[in-house]
Amino acid sequence: MTVRELRERYLAFFEGKEHLRYPSGSLIPYDVTGRLDESLLFNGAGMIQFKPYFRGVAQPERKRLTTVQKCVRTGDIDEVGDDTHLTFFEMLGNFSFGDYFKAEAIRFSWEFLTDAAWLSIPPARLSFTVFEADDEAIALWRECGAELVFRLGEETNYWPAGAFTYGPPGPCGPNSEMYYWVPDDEPAPDPTTYTVEDWLRDEADRKWVEIWNDVFITYEWQGDANPIGKGYIKTGMPELPFRSIDTGMGLERTAMVLSGLKNVYATDVFTPIFAEIDAVAGSITGDPTAARRIIADHIRTATFCIGDGVLPGNSGRGYVLRRLIRRAVLKGDRVLGIAEPFLYRVYEGVAASMGDAYPEIRERAAMITETLRNEEILFRRTLRAGTERIADLLHADISGEDAFRLYDTFGFPLEITKELAAEAGVAVDEAGYEAALVEAQTRSRAGQELETVYGAVGGAKIEGDPSPTEFLGYAEQSAAATVVAIRRTGERIAVALDRTPFYGESGGQVGDTGTLDALTVVGTTKSNGVFWHALAEGAVPPAIGATVTARVDAARRQRVVAHHTATHLLHLALREHLGRHATQAGSYVGPDRLRFDFTHGAALSPEDRAAIESRVNELARANDRVTTYVDITPDEARARGAMALFGEKYGDKVRMVEIGASRELCGGIHVGTAAETLPFRILSESSAQSGVRRIEAVAGIAAMDHLSEERATLETLAARLKSPVPQLAASVDRLLESLADERRRRERAERQALTGGNDGATPAVEVGAVRLITRAFGEVDPKVAAEAIDNAVAADPKLVMVGAVVNDGKVTFTAKVGADALAAGAHAGNLLREVAKVAGGGGGGRADFATAGGKLPEKVDSALAVAVDMLKRQVSG
Ligand code: SER
User: I need a surface site. Which of 92, 142, 519, 634 has the fewest CB within 10 A?
Assistant: First the structure.
């Protein structure tokens, strides 16, 4: 049975049982209402996105859903490369939200596993476990015809594992696991050597492989984070309003055992990926099995992470992604001998294998390959720089501090240092590394806590009852409202109202400012649906229950919204001009300017920049009406061509903003028609982080202000240059030309003075048949001095000339000997050596010509004075 077949068969079976096929949640753990599950780094189970449905706080389209969920679990990353471990895998699941429960769930599982029309597994090859107290589940399995049914504790038979006692908070319940017997002979337990648990769960033995898990969601586990140490302290476990089902079948693993394969990498889903890896492989060092598997696994994880909006970075998800990419590159480089960036090519294998089931990885192909390539190029550069440093360290065991420095300074994750150390046969002090890491984290957290205390959340005291605020700001800029809560954070005071026209900072758009009656609002933020109006320092807040008139600073708002609409037009223009990989990666929309970050590997040329700016202006001039679709489903939005803002998860209903061909999901406020953003000016283009570029720009009134400032500068210049603005360029050219003329004239004069004149020169001294002139040139161009010396010696073959030039606090001596003087025994090199010594230097050279340096410019005269004695010795001796 192939992965492809099993995926389709499972979903079809449950569709036949009235389940709706529902798309996989994002790998970034957003739930169906768009809320991010802060307790998780990645989505690792089918049920994560459905927590609000289990709790009854949101209603699904149908009470029965079935999914194939993309999952990332990195806990066993070091095991990847063996036969079974993966960081990315797919989980099949069927869900009931207050519809069917245990009896039907167990019957569905039995039917799908054993029925000839579906998986047709002989019942003798299956065993089942239930939570130790769950008599009902045992009876249900037996009714179906199961023989091997065992009771186990909460560590294995509660979801989440151990949740009965330990949490985490959230929907939970007892579960029942299904195991498949792999060997050819029939299963025969030997209770004298095995406990049931050992027999079923001996992973190394791998006779029984767990393939499926039915969870009977019943309770909401409640508890508080443990103030000392890890985990939670249980405060209660009330029953949920209704009972639900969550099941999970590991897709690759089940396909593997059903096909009689011994390792998960032999399944069809990996075939196209290995084909790409083998196509780029160079000369292989050692056994490539583990390296090929690690690359195949990590490229899948990386592709799906980037597709869901994770970018490589130095913390959280971004760091996990960066580690995976780097480890894959290292394996490719070291073991498979791949010298050039290759991961972006292996992506093709992932797309070929999984692009049908997950269209997003094809839609975002450009963006994924661009990111992979940039990260790989960056890492290969780091690798080259750090390899030298590592080579120095690899002679002995690597200390924790050095390992940490390699990470901190050179970007070598510990695993990579460990891998290089293992190759060299030395150890790494991991405990020391952890200690250094914790110290660094504590340092950075101390900073963060400070921020929270002074910012919005931590240490705040709230009076009144802040419930979600009704937002009026799309249509209104002022409204009467009632004060419902006051929040004090140190000296700062913020007010919550029952309704407000103030926009709360989100989606890059800054919060509004304005007034509540006579009080000044300096900013507005939003948290859990409550809009907080921050008051100016020293304000006395209104009483709870008081009615106030909330008035937005309309002029500022107008500047902000022009920038917001302009970011949408800019996004469209960037994608038209650079390609579909150019996707929003962050933004700031304020009254002063906009900032737009987008994924793109290279700096924009001046031509690109000009073309993009003029395209945005053109889109604005088309003056399309800004149309907002509120409360449409994500599918409707997609059908209307919404650019799915990757990296974000939207709820059941979304808001879509359309301006001509631009369609984006957006909760922000916009202008009425596109021309209100005119003019649009790009101020700068720069790098935001690797693979992400940043444009800063101004639009609308802010751009007009910017233009006025530029004009004021021009007019000042025009007045200073006494030239009308249109002729300014020509005037500046003339000015520059006359400056250049002036410089040339000065240089000529200097040269003439030096070559023709005699400043600083001693009168010629006759030494036998030879004449000596020394000259302190002072601070002049050494070339000009050399020319003066050349000319003098050329004109007089008897002459020995020694010159000194001072520049940057250093002396340069030059000596030249004419032909007759040379014949008489003068030697420039020897002469100069003694001269330079006096000025704290040295040097020498040929008999006819030499140069030497000195560090003591104040000694120039006494140094030159030595020349005559030296020459006397040369000529007489
Ligand atoms: N949530 C359960 C699991 O991950 C069943 O889907 O095993």
Answer: 142
In degrees and rounded to multiples of 5, residue 254 shows phi and psi of: -70, -40
Q: What is the number of the ligand 1 atom nearest to the C-alpha of 214?
A: 5
Torsion angle of alpha carbons 51, 52, 54, 55, nearest 10°? 120
Residue pair 469/496 in contact by the 8 Å Cβ criterion:
yes
DSSP conformation class of 537: T
Q: Which is higher by pLDDT, 395 or 617?
A: 617
Whether the pLDDT of residue 593 is over 80: the answer is yes
pLDDT digits (tens, 9 = 90+) for 364-394: 999 899 999 999 998 898 888 777 777 788 8
Q: Which of 593, 405, 391 is nearest to 510 (CA)?
A: 593
Cα-to-centroid distance, 250 and ligand 1 (Å): 9
Placement of tokens 């389709």 in the chain: 8
Give the side-chain half-sphere CA count within 13 A for 62: 14
What is the reported pTM? 0.63
- For strand 692-699 and strand 594-599, is the pairing parallel, antiparallel, or unpaired? antiparallel
For the stretch 417-470, pLDDT in tens is 888 888 888 889 988 888 888 777 665 443 333 322 222 334 568 888 888 899
Q: Residue 92 Cα, ligand 1 centroid: separation in angstroms? A: 9
Q: Per residue in 671-716, pLDDT tens?
A: 999 999 999 999 999 988 778 899 999 999 999 999 999 999 999 9
What is the Å distance from ligand 1's center to 650 Cα? 23
What token pair was written down for 117? 């029309």
Dig out the tokens for 682 from the structure.
Answer: 């790009």
Q: Which residue's CA is the nearest one to ligand 1's atom 3?
A: 248
Lowest mean pLDDT among 95-109, 626-640, 763-777, 852-866: 626-640
Report the alpha-carbon distance of residue 387 to residue 424 in Å, rounded. Answer: 13
Spacing, Cα 353 to ligand 1 middle (Å): 25
Q: How confident is the model at residue 877, as a pLDDT?
A: 55
Residue nearest to atom 6 of ligand 1 (CA): 248
Which residue has its alpha carbon closest to ligand 1 atom 4?
Answer: 45
Residue to mutate (ligand 1; options 70, 214, 247; most atoms within 8 A of CB):
247
**If you ran DSSP here, which 8-state letter would residue 75 be given?**
T
> If residue 861 lies in a helix (H) or strand (E), which one and from where to where?
helix 860-876
> Residue 83 C-alpha to ligand 1 middle, in angstroms?
22
Token pair, residue 833, equals 């050596």
Alpha-carbon distance 535 to 551, whole Å? 13
Three-class secondary structure assignment of 597-638: EEECCCCCCHHHHHHHHHHHHHHHHCCCEEEEEEEECHHHHH
- Residue 199: which pLDDT band, with cuts at 50, 70 and 90? confident
Lining residues, ligand 1, CB within 6 Å:
45-47, 93, 159, 213, 215, 246-248
What mean pLDDT value characterizes the chain? 89
